[in-house]
Each structure stands twice: as structure tokens, then as C-alpha cells.
Amino acid sequence: MNTKYEFQTPGEERIVYVRAVAAGDLPEEIQGQLGGLETLYAVHNAEGERLALVKDRKQAFILARQNDFAPVTVH
Fold first, then answer.
1. Which of the 8 DSSP states describes residue 73?
2. How far apart are CA 38 and CA 35, in angstroms?
3. How would you write the pLDDT of the chain (75 residues) with one tens digit per residue?
4. What are phi and psi of 48, to 5 degrees?
5. Is the pTM value of this prediction over 0.70?
6. pLDDT at residue 75 in the model
7. Are 15 and 43 in contact (CB under 8 A)?
8. Rounded-to-integer distance, Cα 63 and Cα 1, Å
9. Long-range CB contacts (< 8 A, 24+ apart) of 52-61?
């Protein structure tokens, strides 16, 4: 098995950033769906685009890894 494999397309960033988000900072339409949660976790790409909102940090890291991203915590 000496076949070279390109694990990452040049220019493609495989890191995502996970940060806590206060429910009060989200639009009202989303707040109405939270069922009392006060903090969620957002997963963002390198350009800062929000890719997902999840209910806890552990779930954010699992989601990122299941989609072949390397999650990093942002404070």
C-alpha cells in the first residue's frame, strides 16, 4: 500500500470552533424552541459561519468529529 492519499484538499480548513452561546443572544424564534436551556454551544467554521447549535459542549465535539472536523474550543 504505497498509494499516496491527499487527506486534505489544499485550501480546505478542517478545523471548527466551538463556543458557548447565551440563549438570550439568539433570535427570539430560536429562543422559543430551547425548552428552558440557558446556554447552547455553537460550531463555527474558520470564516466564522455558524454551522450548528447544540445543547451541550460534548455533543458539539461529537458532531464535529463525526463530520471529520477537528473541534477547538473558543473562549
1. E
2. 9
3. 455 555 555 556 789 999 999 999 999 998 989 988 999 999 999 899 999 999 999 999 999 999 999 999 987
4. 90, 0
5. yes
6. 76
7. no
8. 31
9. 53/21, 53/26, 57/18, 57/20, 60/18, 61/18
Q: What is the pLDDT of residue 12?
A: 63
58: cell is 460534548
What type of residue is 41?
A: Y
Cell of 69: 472536523
And the C-alpha cell for 3?
498509494
Residues comprising the chain, all counted: 75
- Domain map of the chain by residue range? 20-73
